[in-house]
Amino acid sequence: QLKLVESGGGLVQPGGSLRLSCAASGITLDYLSIGWFRQAPGKEREGMSCISSSGGRTNYADSVKGRFTISRDNAKNTVYLQMNSLKPADTAVYYCAACLIRALKAHPSYDYWGQGTQVTVSS
Predict the structure, then answer these.
(1) DSSP code of residue 93
(2) 10 Å Cβ neighbour count for 11?
(3) CB 70 within 8 A of CB 13
(4) 62 phi and psi, to 5 degrees?
(5) Residue 97 needs a FRET pair 20 to 30 A away by CA distance; which of 2, 19, 66, 107 works?
């Protein structure tokens, strides 16, 4: 069974940076596209970014394009999200999960989610 653990969140000032990590266990990730999703209070969870199994293809939501970079290290079974130029609107709980690249949605056949990591952008 796939288990995902997100880490790296925290409190950061506007304009700051954070790097999130998504560590997987149970199965290897090297055949799955993995993405980052976020959910702010009172809002639905939305897809932020997704990376293909090889790392050769990525997709980003318009709201984070040019500021966030997704990457992966299949040898470490880990996916990362580098977040730069953070804004208060980026405040949310961030989750990783298997994804569909073009749709930026969670993969319906791999409904596994971690506990998430809180990102708070505030001065």
Answers:
(1) E
(2) 12
(3) no
(4) -60, -30
(5) 66
Summarised one tens digit per residue, pLDDT across range 7-43 is 999 999 999 999 999 999 888 888 899 999 999 999 9
Q: Tell me the three state secondary structure of residue 64.
A: coil
User: Using one digit for the tens of pLDDT, what is the confidence trace for 60-100?
Assistant: 999 999 999 999 999 999 999 999 999 999 999 999 999 99
Grouping H, G, I as helix, E, B as strand and the rest as coil, residue 66 is coil
105, 47 in Cβ contact below 8 A?
yes
Report CA 27 to chain centroid distance, whole Å.
18
